[in-house]
Design a protein that fits this description.
3-stranded antiparallel sheet, 13 helices, 41% helix, 287 residues, Arc Repressor Mutant, subunit A, single chain, globular, mainly alpha
Amino acid sequence: MYRTVCCEFWTDPKVKTMTPSQKLLFLYLITNPHSHYSGLYYLPLVTMRYEVNLGTGFRGAWQGIQSSSLTTYDPQTEFVWVKNMYRFQRNGKNMDRGVATHLSTLHNSTLLHQFLTYYPSVSPYVAGPPSNPLRTPFEPPSNPLMTSQYITEPPFEPPSTSPYPVPVPVSSLNSPKSLNSPKSEEGKESEKGEFETFWAAYPRKIGKRAAQKAFQNAHNRPRINDLISAIERARTSPQWAKDGGQYIPHPATWLNRGSWDDEPTEQVGVNDPNGFLAGLNDFIARR
């Protein structure tokens, strides 16, 4: 997967005023593996923070990016929009059609309407004639094709409890299965992306195939943001910190146990200035 980055990026007046951290974060938003060439895609802040790895400097870099008006973020749906990204990626009407199909897989958000206003060339492909209708979870402004005679099913309403975008089926797929079905291709891709986020965050990378199976079978697992937070809490436990992390459980074991609900134990300090207890423990372990 490739993204076009214009050479004038570095001389853009807004980019020139950015700090090095802000420039790195902005380049990440254009080139990260979760991105879409439209510039509008789903990306939780917790994933962004982990992959950019700016530490405590992330907050300041993110606020600086937001104030530059180069990007917009919808915290409710966790969509990011790099406004001018599609301007440099666009290459004809076929890409406009692809963007329209991509938009139909996203939750309803004010960013969708803003995008169609900013890129009017995409609007004609959001809905089509009766022979090839395209269902969407939103109604673009001033689009006469979005009327009941072109839509064969009621507008899609995602479950209120779901924090993630649920792909919306289009008529051209010719499949009676719901995309919420665990056997659907879109559902598999979404779950695979969440697992890769989990795998990247888990410190002991052993048995990836077993971990993926455990991840799929853990139906009561929390959302990915809470799962990553549980891993970060566990990192502070004595068991995970001991001996370079050799006592960290395998990721499949951690998932099968439902260890995201564990309360981390705090290591109690012992006043042992001469190292007597440490030496005694080592002596006993070698006997």
